[in-house]
Amino acid sequence: MLDTAPGPTLLGVDVYVAGSMLVAVAAGAVLFAIYTAITIRDPMAKRVKALSERREQLKAGIVVTNARKRTSIIRGNQTTDRIRVFLDSLKVLQDSQVATVQQKLAQGGIRKKEWAVAVILARLIGPIVLGLIGAMLFYWTDSFPEWTPFKRFMGFAACVILGYKGPDLAVQNLISKRTAAIRKGLPDALDLLVICAEAGLTVDAAFNRVARELGRAYPELGDEFSLTAIELSFLTDRRQAFENFAYRVNLDSVKGVVTTMIQTERYGTPLASALRVLSAEFRNERMMRAEEKAARLPAIMTIPLILFILPVLFIVILGPAACSLSDNFINKKF
């Protein structure tokens, strides 16, 4: 007869079953790592393609020349056209609202302005969809029978609020990540701009050179510098190219750089000295942010220290003494 004795267990879990599952997970992780290493792609290929499309648009004369064109939506996509017509019929599509969403998408790295209507539509139908799901979970079905009416209402309200704020939170997350990446590489970019300016390169050539040098280390910043260099080459108004740079980046430091570039273009002031001062200021600002985080660390670590480290420390220090005392009291003969 076959031996059907159970295998060894650890905390009520069969060791053989748990080991088999861990081996399967490890094998899957190894296969995924091999697949990722084999199918790796150049991260700059997609960005270069987008910049090439922008160059062709500028050649064809599709440029931003005034505020009305900046807030308009490109009618090249049939789906977005239908969404626009639907929102217009509901009287919920405003030019100022579309312009705000377009700027946020640009700051998040999304170049297609027609996606603004999709974000507005998601903000409109999100509360309805998630509200119906919440009503079905909390009222129509018996999913949470132990919940009080107040808890059910709060769950339903949370679903509705999440449906309304979800698209904005997703876009804001993209903006935060992209802004942090650009802020990190901006001082290095300004140092390279100073070197290029002192070497005698023009502004558009300097931007293009910096984009090539920093494209690998800071792809987001290299993307913005490349696009600015293209617009400087094709736009009739160079001031507009710098303003577009500040329009696409949600960073006060970039706005300061743009103001400096516009002033040097207008008054002919030395570009290298102004950029060197800005670079030093940005580096000092980055050092101050690091010092602020370091100063805030003791207050942040107080709660984890009390909850997780001190109890373990007391157990390690007092545990042997407590065990010794308990053994002495138990084994003591009266």
Description of the structure:
With 334 residues, the chain is mainly alpha-helical. Helices cover 79% and strands 1% of the residues. The chain has a two-stranded antiparallel sheet. Helix 7 packs across helix 12 and helix 9 runs antiparallel to helix 10. The protein is extended.
Q: Tell me, briefly, the overall form.
A: extended
Averaged pLDDT, please?
79
Cα(first) to Cα(last) distance is 56 Å
Tell me how many strands there are: 2
Specify the number of helices: 12
Give a quick account of the main beta sheet: strands, pairing sense, barrel closure. Answer: 2 strands, antiparallel
Helix residue percentage = over 70%
Radius of gyration (CA) equals 30 Å
Class per helix and strand makeup: mainly alpha
**Could you name the ranges where pLDDT drops below 50 across 5 or more consecutive residues?**
62-76
Strand order of the largest sheet: 1-2
Strand content: under 5%
SSE order in H/E notation? EEHHHHHHHHHHHH
Short description:
Helices cover 79% and strands 1% of the residues.
Question: Can you give keywords for this protein?
Answer:
extended; 2 strands; single chain; two-stranded antiparallel sheet; mainly alpha; 334 residues; 79% helix
Topology:
Blueprint: E1 9-10, E2 13-14, H1 15-38, H2 43-60, H3 67-71, H4 78-89, H5 95-107, H6 115-140, H7 149-198, H8 203-214, H9 219-234, H10 238-248, H11 252-267, H12 271-331
Antiparallel strand pairs: 1-2
Helix pairs in contact: 2-9, 4-6, 5-6, 6-7, 7-8, 7-12, 8-9, 9-10, 10-11, 11-12
